[in-house]
Amino acid sequence: MEARRSSLAVSLALLALSCGGSQSSKGSGTLTVLLKDAPAALDAAVVTITEVDLVGTAGTLVLSTEKVTTDLLTLANDTATLVDGVAVPAGTYSQLRFVITGGYISVGGTLYASSPTYEGLPEGAVVGGELRMPSYATSGLKIDLPGGAMTLGTSARILVVDFDVSRSFGHVAGHSGAWVMHPVVKASDVVTTGAR
């Protein structure tokens, strides 16, 4: 499934409009999570995210289980909305987690995939090598929040997650020819409204 893409400016404007016309549950705010990327020297860097979680002092809150497959390179000047205005109980949260179940990169015309049968591959694609994605389908990719923690009240907030593709993929040592994904990500917090 293709990720819904929108510019950050449009996302902020729509969120601001929607906040004016609806009320969240008492004692909760809303959270939107946007994904973006810095430019990289790859031809493609596709991942499938099947779950987005928010981890806090009260445990883990599942924000989304919608499957999103996106080429991270298209996000250098754009964003993909992974979570859109989900109600989140007031509290302190320290981490996001993305469950990433597959992916591929294209380097010099050769595809390196997490599996030869990865569903996100282009039709008729021939996989030339392996892309290792250690434990991201089980424990998830852990993303620390700005300042180590985010306290959410009744405001509507946006987290922008920057996935730095240029630093997130590299060759495996030795002669296997495989690549490995070690994501370099950074979350930035944007407060869009005051308390309601």
Strand content: over 45%
Low-confidence stretches are 1-25
Query: Which assembly state applies to the chains in this document?
Result: single chain
Please give the alpha-carbon distance between the first and last residues.
35 Å
Shape: elongated
Q: How many runs of DSSP E, i.e. beta strands?
A: 15
Helix content: under 10%
- The H-and-E topology, N to C, reads as EHEEEEEEEEEEEHEEE
Give me the secondary-structure category.
mainly beta
- Calculate the mean pLDDT score and round it: 82
Estimated radius of gyration: 18 Å
Task: Enumerate how many helices there are, as a single number.
Answer: 2
Notable features of this structure?
5-stranded mixed beta sheet; disordered N terminus; mainly beta; 9% helix; 196 residues
Task: Give a structural overview.
The chain has 196 residues and is mainly beta. The protein has two helices and 15 strands. The strands form two sheets. Strands 3, 4, 5, 7, 8, 9, 10, 11, 13 and 14 form a ten-stranded mixed sheet that branches. A five-stranded mixed sheet has the order 1-6-2-12-15. The longest helix is centred in the N-terminal third of the chain and has 14 residues. The N terminus is likely disordered.
Outline:
The protein has 196 residues and is mainly beta. The protein contains two helices and 15 strands.
Secondary structure: elements and pairs:
Layout: E1 5-6, H1 8-21, E2 28-38, E3 44-56, E4 59-64, E5 68-71, E6 79-89, E7 91-107, E8 110-113, E9 127-132, E10 141-144, E11 150-152, E12 156-164, H2 165-168, E13 169-171, E14 179-181, E15 185-191
Parallel strand pairs: 2-12, 8-9, 9-14
Antiparallel strand pairs: 1-6, 2-6, 3-4, 3-5, 3-7, 7-8, 7-10, 7-11, 12-15, 13-14
